[in-house]
Fold:
Amino acid sequence: MPALNLCASLRPSRLKILFLHPLLVLSLFAATATEPKPIDRRALVTRHNPVVRSLDVDAPLTVGNGNFAFTAGITGLQSFAALYQRTGIPTETLSRWCWVTDENPNHYQLADANKDFTLPDGRVLGFPTKSSSAAGDWLRRNPRNHPLGQLALEWVKPDGTEFVPADVQDPEQTLDLWRGVLTSRFKLGGVPVTVTTACASRTDTIAVTVESPLVVEGKLRVRLAFPRGHDPAVKNTPALDWSKPGSHQTVITGRTDTRIDLLRLVGTTRYYVTLASKERLLFTESAPHEYDLAASGAVLAFALTFSPEPLDHAPFDPVGIRAASAQAWEKFWREGAAVDFTGSTDPRAAQLEARIILSRYLLAVQDAGDVPPQESGLTCSTWYGKHHTEMIWWHTAQFALWGNDALLERNLAWFQAQLPAARALAASRGLKGARWAKMTGPDMRESPGGNPLIVWNQPHLIYLAELLYRNTPKPETLARYRDLVLETADCLATMVHWNEAKQQYDLGPPLWIAQEIYDQGTSSNPSFELAYWRWTLGVAQHWRERLGLPRDAHWDHVIAHLAPIPQKDGKYVALGSNPDTFDNIDSRHDHPTMLAPLGLLPGGPDVDRATMQRTFDAVLQTWDWETKIWGWDYPMIAMTATRLGHPEQAVEILLREGPNNHYLPNGHVPQRSDEAAVRKAKPGVPKREIAVYLPANGAFLSAVALMIAGWDGAPRAHPGLPDDGKWVVRAEGLKPLP
Structure:
């Protein structure tokens, strides 16, 4: 029919031509027939809904809104939380706005953790690298993120014994990704129970509905409990601390039949908790900081809201909250990009599609808060909740590539607000512009350790702003991110040192390169960082030109005279000052970032493809994959494979099973910091140090975007997938990389 409509619109002379050329007519029909139909977004998303049919400690499921999240076990609440935390993934309630700070009677300041380093120009400068000192330890732990509260199901068993995991019979739990609603069905003592859990899209509210004859009988209720915090002695994946109940306060500040208001006081931190329902609530205190909640009718339905400020009006309707959640999630899935592999015969296509959907959900739930994300998002605490700014690209670049610019913009808004702090940090080190702290809490203060000597966090903001400009190339975008880009570039251009003997700019020392294994006091000219400096300074020059400003002469001088990417024996190596990457097995673990100049970055005149090919081959053949290689390394290597024209290797590496590239049923990727070292010290299967690791998911999505949407000047469509007839790809809205 479309072809007939087209014919009807043509003049008679054109019709005559069509009739005289039947092949042309057939081609019009063929073109119409092969035009791809729009992707059925709902079918695409929901076929990957996680379904859990046992108490799997590796498969708790999360609902959230980007700034706040609630992770639930098999009951739909946080029952058996200690078991999940001890052996799998914790079930917690976290936000990016709730932080606590211990008392500081010694008045520790960052300079108290300083160690002196000598710069290439002879200056001696202190950097706060003493993390094990008393000052360093306090400054690393403070401020730290604070868990908000715990909701657990309580069953009054007929025999009076404790409610244990074995009591949960015939469970079937489904997370509806299209609606953001978790439904948990099971039996207790043969009696059916249904728990429905959802998160409000605009407030930090959990909506819970518990339906069961046991509710009517008064045998099933919910416990609300507040821990002291996390165990501060544990850096990554700490347990909740239920000790010392006298060290914090929970105060009932208001109470009616349908609403209870609580004030939480933990040190100098205060936050507010409101429990609300349409029906009368039976609310009793069972122990300090613990409350039992029961229904007055046939269904226990309530909304629990956490807030840094008192609430005048609290959400109370779980049905309305679920409807709003469904509306927000449908908008997310419809407005963003989509990739559908229906019809593909390569068995990896279904695996790839599932990881895309689950990763996009997890990152939207956990990576768009008031403070940029910690490594573990809003699932559990890592590095005391601090944000590692060198990970911001891996967390959030995918938002711009998958059509969710607003979520990236929310992250960059924090950096814009922290420009004064970044300027002050730059000035304290004799630098221009804005220097970004590496491991930081909400105030952008550095944390002692190797963090102050890591520099590859610095260029990310230019790259991320450029992705947003590519999506919206308007004066408003330039104006919005002008200061962020130009001041970040000013600092880049002054972080290098002029080497008179070689007539070049060197980067470092002191320096802790992305591959965190070399001496900080002597390292200089790392391959990835040099390439990143040159490329982002060039991007910043384009921003000046777009803004109608002249090119910065000093930036151009740095670009032209920056030290070349170091190489040895025809291969790129990690570090110019110690080019032993392929000579020493101990230098072939951690991140193989010498591949990143052609992969994460688009290459350029400073990157030789033949040399990069030899480097890529050497990494695949000789890298120590069993040690400290992280979840974002696999996608990074896949990006290099894609740009080198090796799609089969790109897919294989992206999906390769590895100690830190193992995807769980809920889409998470746990990490152990050094698998080989842990096994050597403790034979057997060690506990994961980091229960979940969002940079792996974000890097995965960015790699997929490169593999499918390509880059500027890519040689063919879908350059990262094999062109062997086994892949059927429909992609909508996916953005290419530079």
Notes: The CA atoms of residues 417 and 443 lie 10 Å apart. The longest helix spans residues 475-494. The radius of gyration is 28 Å. The longest strand covers residues 168-176.
